[in-house]
Amino acid sequence: MNASFAAEVVSIERLSPSVVRIELGGGDIAQFTSTGFADEWVRLVFPNACGDIALPGQVDGKWGTPEGVPKSPMRPYTVRRWDADRARMTVDFVVHDGGVAASWAAGADVGDRIGIANPDGRFRPPVDAEWILLLADITGLPAVGRIVEETPPTLRTFAHLEVAVAGDEQPHITAAAAVARWHTGFGATPEITRLAEIARSIDLPKGQGYIWIAGEAQAVTGAREHFRDRIGFDKDRITAIGYWFLGKPRG
After folding, report:
1. Which helix (H) or strand (E) holds 122?
2. Is residue 247 left, alpha or beta, with left meaning phi > 0 and alpha meaning psi from -120 to 50?
């Protein structure tokens, strides 16, 4: 069942040149129940034109906001960490010029209010998987970080991650993954991301595997098509998620 929660900013940390980490708590966030997916995401609900948080809910049997209430913009973001004991949710934001979420994160202060809605996720490796390949641009780093923390060490994990600059690399991912390769230059070309090109450079391990891809939608599609159509990898063992669209907001 759909659910939404009120929360506020508890702490803010500049994690790297391109990433701000914000911890959320308070409100009724203690009622949040994790989906259990390692790539879990929620829709964050930001202040509307009146400065209010209009949380979505059931209105006449449909999911939305009551008539006459200015809608709050919503954007999907990964739950980097959920601490049920402390009722704290950690969310990492890629900061850049423009954009509802990036602008909010760049100017956030402790005590600022925000909403949380619609938890979901898709990371589900087959039970017979012998290895996992994680391929993501910088927007997928929070999910990759949580995945490598929650994946049993007996399951070989390989990560190819595209960031803007070397300072955006996150050492714990390299330490946790059997192999982690960092690719810099995200945002430095008109296409912004080279995710599909990176996919074409990867030699897959032998044995039964699982591929998880996240990033810009068209680049993700190109990467998936490479593995599925050119390499012949089983499409049912690929999870490909468009986290964002070049030139378009995602609500």
Report:
1. none
2. left
- Is residue 29 a contact partner of residue 117, using CB atoms and an 8 Å limit? no
Q: In angstroms, rounded to a whole number, what is the distance separating the alpha carbons of residues 212 and 226?
A: 13
Q: How far apart are CA 200 and CA 27, in angstroms?
A: 46
Extract the runs of DSSP E, i.e. beta strands, from the chain. Answer: 4-16, 19-25, 41-45, 57-59, 62-64, 74-78, 81-83, 88-94, 113-120, 131-137, 156-163, 179-184, 209-216, 238-244
Which of the four pLDDT bands, split at 50, 70 and 90, describes residue 153?
Answer: confident
Dist. CA 168–CA 175, nearest whole Å: 15
Strands, sheet with 41-45, edge to edge from the N-terminal-most edge strand: 74-78, 41-45, 113-120, 4-16, 19-25, 88-94, 81-83
Distance CA 106, CA 93 (A): 9
Report the candidate in 12, 17, 13 with the shortest Cα–Cα distance to residue 168: 17
State how far the Cα of 137 lies from the Cα of 135, in Å rounded to an integer. Answer: 7
What are 114's strand-pairing partners? 7
Residue 103 reports pLDDT greater than 60: yes
